[in-house]
Amino acid sequence: MTDRTSQAQAFLNQTDWAGAEVKLLAGDASNRKYHRLTRAGTGQTAVLMDAPPDKGEDIRPFIQIATYLSGIGLSAPRIFAADEVHGFLLIEDLGDALYARVLEGDPALENSLYTAATDTLVALHDRPPPSDLACYDAEVMADMACLAFDWYASGAGVANTSARQRFRGEIRNALAQHTQPHDVLIQRDYHAENLLWLPTRSGVARVGLLDFQDAMTGHRAYDLVSLLQDARRDVPLGIETRMIEHYISVTGANPVAFEAAYRCLGAQRNLRILGVFARLCLRDGKAGYVDLIPRVWGHLQSDLTHPALAPASETLSAALPEPTPELLRKLKEKCATTPAL
């Protein structure tokens, strides 16, 4: 039994789940792991989150945001027990009906599920965010967009320091001009692998929420981009268009301004993801993320057609290479060979 397993068991022994069966449920791009606990006899379940502090994990933001989301009527997992020192959480099990799995089994539900997820954002944006969240502003977003240069372009062997510097100014200016105000909570990973369908609940509570611990304040288009320009599954263009129109219709947002914000945030987000996916391969040895890069690239090219991004688009077209099969192979060959930049 490892030290981490012993610590987890000690934590569970302090709860009424001490004798439950424990099975690994999932891991993610972070260092967190999830285990499902099942009580013998009743079949009742809960989830153990294992978030090791010595690997940079901190469960306190999850607790804060889960409590906030539940408090405004949204379906974040309830917190049953917590060990902040050792990084363990015992939380409500919202089941296995991830949007991605449900839609794979029944594509006819696509419109209704995405409408429910969009309505959940409307409800969230109708409430003031927690007062102590950091702001995902133009300066922060510009730095995050530059991960595409730092890891994707660098990994492809085409690093360009002057282009990076020029691009940072261009994307920062576009974001500063088109993505104000930063007045709502953004979950920043709001997509089909982090949403659960809970049809026995009512209204927006039918959408189960996961992986929101990195929440910040930001523009209300951000999570809609995350939902509709999914890095892991193809969302039909018709669904993307209808959900943008639905959000604008329900909230009364200015269509022209909202579209500009959506495209600027989309470009920023997809550039960040290009960098993160390349880093997960090059630094962390997770080569599977490279296979997702072409989809992200496609989203980026769509966003860059907006006039607000014309200067940045010109710089990127010369500085970032297209993810050809040869380039993707090159990234995989370098898997786990770049500990830091």
Automatic annotation (TrEMBL):
<dbReference type="InterPro" id="IPR002575">
    <property type="entry name" value="Aminoglycoside_PTrfase"/>
</dbReference>
<dbReference type="InterPro" id="IPR011009">
    <property type="entry name" value="Kinase-like_dom_sf"/>
</dbReference>
<keyword id="KW-0808">Transferase</keyword>
<dbReference type="Pfam" id="PF01636">
    <property type="entry name" value="APH"/>
</dbReference>
<dbReference type="GO" id="GO:0016740">
    <property type="term" value="F:transferase activity"/>
</dbReference>
<feature type="domain" description="Aminoglycoside phosphotransferase">
    <location>
        <begin position="22"/>
        <end position="236"/>
    </location>
</feature>
<protein>
    <submittedName>
        <fullName>Phosphotransferase enzyme family protein</fullName>
    </submittedName>
</protein>
